[in-house]
Amino acid sequence: MTTRSPARSECGADDQLSEFVYLDHAATTPLTAEAAAAVGDALRLFGNPSSRHTLGQAARDALDEARAQVAALVGGADDEVVFTGGGSEAINLALRGTFAARRGTGHLVTTAIEHAAGLECAAALRRNGVDVSIVAPEPGGHVDPARIAAAMRADTVLVSVMHANNETGAIQPVDEITELVHAAGALMHVDAVQTAGKLPLDALGADMVSVSAHKFGGPKGVGALRLAAHHRVEPLICGGGQEAGRRAGTENLPGVRGMAAAAAAALPRLRDPRHREHQWRLRTRLLRHFDVLDGVRVHATNPVMAETISVAFDHVRGDTLADVLDLNGVCVSTGSACHAGRDDPSHVLTAMGVGADQARATLRFSAGPATTEDDIDVAGRATVAAVRQLRRVSGTAPRLQEAIRAG
Ligand code: PLP
């Protein structure tokens, strides 16, 4: 196992991070020191933000301040931020809430590479009578705006497209799509769960934008939907009218404060070109390690998130490779974390036209703000060694079986 320096910027995760090279930030990120402190402080701020008394108002002030900090990350006015129980819930509120407000009528356009949260919402809407069109990506992992335009109809209510794909990192042309959607009089939702804290969101012209705290250094189980003032959704959770009637339930103040602190810590990085350059240097460095191997294919073409690399190593099972790397102290995934453990090839790669064998031979490396060049070298060297080892085994196994059969 690789032992590393415990001097990390993340807090509470230091012990674990000192043991591992963590390159699975697309699945989740370590809690930042700022977020951990904010969660701890808010746990002691026990008043109910809906109470009139001083303790309730202290909690209300903390909630309002957090809303302003999250609004600064996602763009939009403070009262356009609806706190949710994570990215999946934000997406559900955007898609199902929009159609519920229209009694389930109309047409939804989305893409074949959305996260399961988006695709399963589309499937549920279809079961309830909404017409749904699913647009396939191009082989490089991007959705062509012309295909979205071709799928739209006179009764299209909503188009939902992710900002960057969680498996391949491919950045989608959401600005161009939003423009054509608005020109046709429809609404636009962007799943920005993978880009929040990494790419600026304030210029997104979409009517709805979903984010999730645990992807940018905040706690799990808390997220937000940026919901334009002109658009009304039917709440998924009915009750006491919190979040201006858009999401009932006493607010998760520790979670929301943690998300806001992570957002405030991420904002300066967005404006710092050195941070972006660092991420591109890491990407190039990791790919350079793989130059010594044959049969390596990076799935997405540009534009991509520097942080996320989806790569197939021919003749190797991605899940086996990930297990070998784990034994060597390197954490990566085969694809989307929520699909881990399933043998069916990734729906994203399949939609891009990648064959089942190549899809199963795929690993996803995803770096974070604290990833160093040393981390990349450890991961790169371990991957090359593991791929060589596994290819030797997969090369000898058929010969062994043949020898056994031949007696
Ligand atoms: N959308 C994308 C693109 C994601 O990557 C994820 C999480 O992996 C989600 C939505 C769901 O977010 P959450 O885990 O907060 O429910």
From TrEMBL:
Signal peptide: none annotated. Pfam families: Aminotran_5. Keywords: Aminotransferase, Iron, Iron-sulfur, Metal-binding, Pyridoxal phosphate, Transferase. InterPro entries: Aminotrans_V_dom, Cysteine_dSase, PyrdxlP-dep_Trfase, PyrdxlP-dep_Trfase_major, PyrdxlP-dep_Trfase_small. Residues 21-377 form the Aminotransferase class V domain. It catalyses: (sulfur carrier)-H + L-cysteine = (sulfur carrier)-SH + L-alanine. This is Putative aminotransferase/cysteine desulfhydrase. Belongs to the class-V pyridoxal-phosphate-dependent aminotransferase family. NifS/IscS subfamily. Its cofactor is pyridoxal 5'-phosphate. GO terms for molecular function: cysteine desulfurase activity; iron-sulfur cluster binding; metal ion binding; transaminase activity.
